[in-house]
Amino acid sequence: MYIQGYAILVSFIGFSLCFALAAIIMSWIVQPKAPGKLKQNTYECGMKLFGDSRVQYDVKYYLYALLFLIFDIEAVFLFPWAVAYDKLGLFALIEALIFLGILIIGLVYAWKKDALRWH
Fold first, then answer.
1. Contact (CB, 8 A) for 81 and 92
2. Model confidence over 69-118: pLDDT tens digits?
3. In a domain, 89, yes or no
4. Dihedral over Cα of 53, 54, 60, 61: its sign
5. What domain range includes position 87?
6. Does a structural domain hold residue 81?
7. Distance (Å, rounded) from C-alpha 86 to C-alpha 89?
């Protein structure tokens, strides 16, 4: 009974690996084989290249993105809790408050470290 389920899983993984291997082989076959200075340049919408393509970004952009992800995931976790609140009871309310408390502590910490100030 369980062997059939595993056989389906193993065949799915096998087909996935074969598909990935076929895609890699096909991309190797159809890739252009005449490298040149122009082909190795960065594409800039037809404009002449100038300067280095590597640009250093300030850490604050990553910090804002990380904070956004944290509070976005908070919403993802709290939405199912709010939908099923009637059936969960007091224990789930306490768990949600602990979860929110941890996130609020993190927000206060970031605020105190001046991580949220746009310099």
1. yes
2. 888 888 888 888 888 888 888 888 898 899 889 988 988 988 898 877 77
3. yes
4. positive
5. 59-112
6. yes
7. 7
Please report whether residue 82 resides in a domain: yes
Long-range contacts of 22-25 (CB under 8 A, 24+ apart): none
* Cβ-based neighbours of 41, under 8 Å, separated by 6 or more: 49
Half-sphere exposure of 110 (CA within 13 A, CB side): 17
3-class secondary structure, 84: coil
Q: What's CA 2's distance to the chain center, in Å?
A: 34
Number of domains in the chain: 1
Q: Does residue 63 have a pLDDT over 90? A: no
Alpha-carbon distances, residue 35 vs 2, 27, 40, 45, 49 (angstroms):
52, 16, 7, 20, 18
> Which alpha helices (DSSP H) does 1-119 contain, by range?
2-30, 59-83, 85-88, 90-112
Least confident range of 30-39, 60-69, 85-94: 30-39
* Amino acid letter, 96: A
